[in-house]
């Protein structure tokens, strides 16, 4: 390669990896300084083509077995496992792992609520008593004439009973919130989850060598364990977080690396569990610590987030996100981050060696997760605020070690925090909160349908490109879009969640959004808050006029840049609830035609939903749009109806 071509390639490489100008700017800095990032490592580490397509089984010491070459479809592993068995085991294990992540999150929140009810976690309180009463109603906990902490204790006990499978009736408590028809379907097909831990353990048992060897039976368990996430761990985590930290309402903020400040102590909270981040927010606003920061030469303390922790503090406090999953290294490379405080999930081990090249202190806090070389300050809910203050002080002390900084100026404007309660209030008002206006406008065609764009970043595809392109194309077609997780940060960085986006929306969607006063892209929260989407879809069905179940709705879900097991669990519980789900990147079961068929046509017949992979964003759009139109056709709402003006007699009749 000539020197000129090499230079051109060097200049252009970062632009291939991201459409975010802030990311491109910092990636150029990293390349100039010879710093390794996930973006450079993904170029160096080629995927194993056998494992990536689902043709390798490494679940016992007789293997790994690779089912490749001539007649691969007919080959088996040493134990006799077929492609279908190997692919189905992969999906089931992924669902069990993803469910475990959200379940542990929900369990920690439930244990915190229990500690609050017993007076052991005095740093926390019941921020939303109204939501507590609603949750108590779901759980059958009596509330009349009782103290609020006593009610909270009973709610926590029932939540925790959902883990070990000791809930009354032997079914997850929140499964009763699903449409009655859906509950009966789950019982008939033996998909009704019994207990979160029980389903995870059974999943791991079934995938042990020599146990479950039928692909369809394995995938049934994948749906059941994932349902214990969506209607169990995740939904409990969302509801109990609202009880403890407040139910989100819309607020404005900014997103991207430009939210870091040159003259303040910058602390990044990164991970997933709000018990820690809530206390870091409180500590960063403590007048004594702010004064201490000034004594070190800083003008104050600036808090920002990465990943789902960012969503948690964004939607309740307006704390700006510095970016999504692929921004965690870039934030450190700016040289402006005094401390990155992490708990669990989506935290790269590469952060510590990277932090050592700058002045950033990486602080791990969870008893479940340590990183070699990082500073570990174990978090304890019973001493939460004191520990948070200790962490913030460590960050302040690190400010004097800061060298040169290179903070990109790029930020996006955003409105965040649309809980399902607020959407219902926004549509119907305080005294008649209802999804009726949404249903009516889907029926009359002003809104064609709704799509959730959720999930991760994956460095094997261009960061944010598929997410933002799909959002723009869908709203242009009068499709209402909701976003969660790292997809929400992508929308925020590119200013897609503001009223000005109505200029890009189709005429029907724009008319409705302007009338209601909402943007055409709604931020619903973190990854566990995908459970809010289940709740919204259920309320829409219950409102009437759009079928009898979630599977009847002109709606879909897309995970354009998926990378981890949690995403597969989320996609599976959505499909098992009746949703049409499309993942981007590439299929991890590409070579397993039996499993692919079962998760599409097979699941459509069994539960009314599908989970499929499609790497091309244009084809994702086509599939989702066609699905929406098929559902509108089936409901009989696809034809434009003549507008009828009612006289007074007709109105009285109504």
Protein model, in words:
With 654 residues, the chain is of the alpha/beta class. The protein has three domains: 83-245, Substrate Binding Domain Of Dnak, Chain:A, Domain 2; 257-401, 3-Layer(aba) Sandwich (Rossmann fold); 413-635, Rossmann fold (3-Layer(aba) Sandwich). The chain is 49% helix and 10% strand. A six-stranded parallel β-sheet has the order 6-5-4-7-8-9. A six-stranded parallel β-sheet has the order 13-12-11-14-15-16, sandwiched between helices. It is globular. It starts with a helix and ends with a helix.
How many individual β-strands?
A: 16
- What's the assembly state of these chains? single chain
Main beta sheet? 6 strands, parallel
Name the beta content range.
Answer: 5-15%
**Average pLDDT score:** 94
Quickly count the domains. Answer: 3
Q: Biggest sheet, strands in spatial order? A: 6-5-4-7-8-9
- Alpha plus pi helix count: 26
Give the helix level as a range of percent: 40-55%
Keywords for this entry:
about 650 residues, alpha/beta, Substrate Binding Domain Of Dnak, Chain:A, Domain 2, Rossmann fold, 3 domains, six-stranded parallel sheet
């Amino acid at each position: 390669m000539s020197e000129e071509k090499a230079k051109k390639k060097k200049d252009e490489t970062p632009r291939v990896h991201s459409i975010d100008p802030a990311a491109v700017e910092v990636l150029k800095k990293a390349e100039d300084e010879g710093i390794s990032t996930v973006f450079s490592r993904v170029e160096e580490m080629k995927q194993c083509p056998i494992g990536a397509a689902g043709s390798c089984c490494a679940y016992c010491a007789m293997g790994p077995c690779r089912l490749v070459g001539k007649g691969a479809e007919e080959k088996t592993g040493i134990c006799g496992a077929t492609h279908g068995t190997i692919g189905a085991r992969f999906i089931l294990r992924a669902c069990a792992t993803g469910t475990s992540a959200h379940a542990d999150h929900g369990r920690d929140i439930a244990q915190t609520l229990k500690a609050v009810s017993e007076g052991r976690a005095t740093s926390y309180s019941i921020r939303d008593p109204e939501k507590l009463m609603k949750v108590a109603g779901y759980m059958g906990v009596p509330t009349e004439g009782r103290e609020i902490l006593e009610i909270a204790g009973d709610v926590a006990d029932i939540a925790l009973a959902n883990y070990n499978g000791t809930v009354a009736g032997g079914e997850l408590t929140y499964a009763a919130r699903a449409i009655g028809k859906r509950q009966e379907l789950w019982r008939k097909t033996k998909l009704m989850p019994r207990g979160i831990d029980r389903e995870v353990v059974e999943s791991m048992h079934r995938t042990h060598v020599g146990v479950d060897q039928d692909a369809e039976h394995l995938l049934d368990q994948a749906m059941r364990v994932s349902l214990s996430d969506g209607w169990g761990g995740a939904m409990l985590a969302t509801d109990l977080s609202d009880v403890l930290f407040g139910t989100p309402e819309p607020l404005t903020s900014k997103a991207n690396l430009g939210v870091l400040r040159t003259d303040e102590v910058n602390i990044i909270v990164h991970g997933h569990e709000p018990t820690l981040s809530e206390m870091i927010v409180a500590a960063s606003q403590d007048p004594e610590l702010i004064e201490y920061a000034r004594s070190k030469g800083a003008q104050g303390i600036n808090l920002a987030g990465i990943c789902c922790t960012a969503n948690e503090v964004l939607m309740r406090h307006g704390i700006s996100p510095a970016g999504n999953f692929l921004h965690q290294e870039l934030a450190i490379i700016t040289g402006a981050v005094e401390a990155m405080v992490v708990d669990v999930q989506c935290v790269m081990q590469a952060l510590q060696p990277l932090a050592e090249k700058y002045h950033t202190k990486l602080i791990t806090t969870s008893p479940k997760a340590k990183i070699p070389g990082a500073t570990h300050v174990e978090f304890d809910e019973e001493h939460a605020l004191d520990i948070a203050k200790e962490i913030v002080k460590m960050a302040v002390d690190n400010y004097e070690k800061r060298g040169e900084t290179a903070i990109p100026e790029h930020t996006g404007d955003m409105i965040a925090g649309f809980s399902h309660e607020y959407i219902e209030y926004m549509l119907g008002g305080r005294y008649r909160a209802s999804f009726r206006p949404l249903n009516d406008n889907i029926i009359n065609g002003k809104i064609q349908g709704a799509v959730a764009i959720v999930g991760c970043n994956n460095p094997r595809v261009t960061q944010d490109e598929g997410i933002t392109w799909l959002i723009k194309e869908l709203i242009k077609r009068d499709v209402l879009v909701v976003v969660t997780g790292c997809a929400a940060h992508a929308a925020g960085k590119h200013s897609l969640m503001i009223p000005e986006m109505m200029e890009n929306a189709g005429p029907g969607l724009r008319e409705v959004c302007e009338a209601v006063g909402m943007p055409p892209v709604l931020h619903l929260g973190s990854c566990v808050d995908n459970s809010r989407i289940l709740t919204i879809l259920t309320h829409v069905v219950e409102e009437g006029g759009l079928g009898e179940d979630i599977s009847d709705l002109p709606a879909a879900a897309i995970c354009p840049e998926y990378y981890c097991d949690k995403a597969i669990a989320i996609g599976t519980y959505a499909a098992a609830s009746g949703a049409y789900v499309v993942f981007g990147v590439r299929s991890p079961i590409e070579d397993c035609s039996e499993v692919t068929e079962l998760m599409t046509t097979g699941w459509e017949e069994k539960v009314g939903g599908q989970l499929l992979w499609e790497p091309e964003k244009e084809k994702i759009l086509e599939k989702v749009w066609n699905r929406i139109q098929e559902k509108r056709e089936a409901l009989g709402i696809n034809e434009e109806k003549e507008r009828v003006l009612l006289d007074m007699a007709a109105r009285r009749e109504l």
